[in-house]
């Protein structure tokens, strides 16, 4: 799909990959609603992009795991630019490490990393089927294909996000709805370093695991890769190409892969 002339919503657009996606979409000729829980951050990204491409974005605050808030964003896009053609479900949370994660931690991770995607798709996909075209881009993680040392909430919900994107692709791919799933490793965003800042041994190990497994990419690099994949209508977006080989090794010999991950975890924890 070409992005020129399209109307997009980017969640988690107040910085990181989301902010870079907003800028890349604007350069490509799209008009964008920038959504973020932090309304000031969303407006700041919108203002910065509009300073280069006047009037092509609008910023809005809101909890994008809330159906009513997603409806509000869709209505805002319609009022400002027209019907939504593309939805980038990019907002995410890292989650608490270990089995100490409480019920509220699990609820937050499930809501933001998974249900936000489901709720947006329920609102948009029927419209796209009727119009014959639409694009849903899910930001998951390499953790959704492999795992995440430290955080069960992150690993489990990112696996679920990949599974939902797969299901969307299979179920609606022949009806005009395109779906891609972004699964990067380390990207230079605030989210990457939350575990390191937590002071928790598993949390710090999680950050070291990601930063030692491959290059830490800049959000702008990832955004360019995403839009290239969208143009090709490619499902799996892997900014770190080695993830594919890791995923193949996992499937080829699961027990060996698990032993290797335990060994890797021991090295990170200094055991």
**Overall residue-averaged pLDDT value:** 95
Looking at CATH, which topology would you report?
Answer: Rossmann fold
Number of strands: 7
Strand content: 5-15%
Work out the radius of gyration. Answer: 18 Å
Broad structural category: alpha/beta
CATH class: Alpha Beta
- CATH H-level name... which superfamily? NAD(P)-binding Rossmann-like Domain
Distance between the termini: 49 Å
Strand order of the largest sheet: 3-2-1-4-5-6-7
Largest sheet: 7 strands, parallel
Strand-and-helix sequence, N→C?
A: EHEHEHEHEHEHHHEHH
User: What best-fitting shape do the alpha-carbon axes yield?
Assistant: globular
Helix content: 40-55%
* Count of separate DSSP helical elements: 10
Low-pLDDT ranges: none
Number of domains: 1
Task: Provide the CATH architecture.
Answer: 3-Layer(aba) Sandwich
What does this structure look like?
- There is one protein chain.
- With 271 residues, the chain is of the alpha/beta class.
- It has one domain: NAD(P)-binding Rossmann-like Domain (Rossmann fold), CATH 3.40.50.720.
- The chain is 55% helix and 13% strand.
- It has ten helices and seven strands.
- It has a seven-stranded parallel beta sheet with strand order 3-2-1-4-5-6-7, with helices on both faces.
- α1 packs parallel to α2.
- The radius of gyration is 18 Å and the shape is globular.
- The mean pLDDT is 95.
